[in-house]
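Severity: low
Component: inverse-folding endpoint
Summary: output formatting inconsistent between runs
Steps to reproduce: submit the following structure tokens with default settings.
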């Protein structure tokens, strides 16, 4: 039993190492232009999806596959294992290198096992943690498959969806000044006037970022990274909400562009990732938790509107 646990621990550590090194390389590659692996053009086809299950990847797998697509220039976010492509009648080309995705199994105190797609929070207690890595290939790496044409909503409709999405979060937004920030003591988000932004998409990307900070309030998700990251907690909070903004923008088909004002965090992010191979997993998990909370708010608003209409 001890041997099995040691072997599993080594597998988990190896996965931490491999994924973290990939993210570090992606951050370093784009640092001069402030381009991070989570920046994307917002097109529907860039969201990482498994070809067999048709489900979107979660947690750190989103970031890992974004980084892989960015490094290799893949235009589509459709992925599958060698066998999954074969079962569809497609063939991974000889010499193509696959990319790692992670699935976790957590045995809780009641002995129940929950499987999660790259979306585990390692700060939560569990009796046993099982990890398994899978190698997946992008659709650009196979023959015999053509990505489907994806309908793209007109920009005006995407902006309207973003407006409704943010309004449903029930967070106090105020406008004025030249900087965007969240004030925890007063629980409101301050945004520059709409006209100060390059376009509406840039405005909502920043607003979602600040709403990500607001989600950590005690009466919302009660998020505190100080115990996990110590003096680096603020930098990792910024990393978490950056990932959150990118995830939600991908859901809303909005692009996420580099923000030069985040240049001051890049060195801190790299320092934390190099010293803590679990850091990016925790940040991605927290970001996914915020995204789930934001989507749940949309459902509640829709249910309220339906009940109100009747």
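Observed output (run 2 of 3):
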């Amino acid at each position: 039993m001890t041997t099995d646990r040691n072997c599993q621990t080594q597998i988990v550590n190896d996965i931490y190492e491999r994924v973290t090194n990939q993210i570090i390389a992606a951050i370093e590659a784009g640092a001069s232009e402030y381009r991070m692996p989570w920046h994307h053009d917002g097109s529907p086809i860039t969201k990482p999806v498994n070809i067999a299950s048709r489900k979107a990847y979660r947690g750190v797998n989103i970031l890992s596959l974004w980084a892989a697509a960015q490094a290799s220039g893949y235009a589509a976010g459709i992925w599958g294992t060698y066998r999954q492509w074969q079962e569809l009648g497609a063939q991974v080309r000889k010499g193509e290198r696959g990319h790692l995705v992670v699935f976790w199994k957590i045995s809780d105190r009641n002995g129940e096992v929950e499987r999660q797609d790259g979306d585990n929070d390692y700060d939560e207690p569990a009796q046993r943690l099982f990890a398994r890595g899978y190698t997946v290939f992008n659709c650009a790496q196979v023959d015999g498959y053509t990505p489907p044409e994806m309908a793209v909503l007109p920009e005006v409709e995407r902006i309207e969806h973003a407006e409704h999405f943010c309004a449903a979060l029930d967070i106090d937004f105020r406008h004025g000044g030249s900087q965007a920030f969240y004030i925890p003591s007063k629980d409101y988000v301050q945004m520059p006037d709409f006209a100060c932004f390059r376009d509406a998409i840039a405005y909502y990307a920043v607003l979602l970022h600040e709403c990500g900070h607001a989600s950590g309030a005690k009466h919302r998700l009660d998020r505190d990274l100080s115990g996990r990251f110590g003096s680096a907690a603020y930098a990792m909070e910024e990393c978490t909400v950056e990932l959150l903004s990118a995830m939600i923008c991908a859901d809303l088909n909005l692009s996420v562009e580099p923000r030069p004002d985040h240049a001051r965090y890049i060195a801190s992010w790299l320092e934390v990732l190099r010293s803590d191979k679990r850091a990016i997993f925790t940040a991605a998990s927290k970001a996914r938790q915020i995204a789930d909370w934001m989507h749940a708010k949309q459902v509640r608003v829709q249910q309220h509107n339906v009940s109100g209409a009747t």
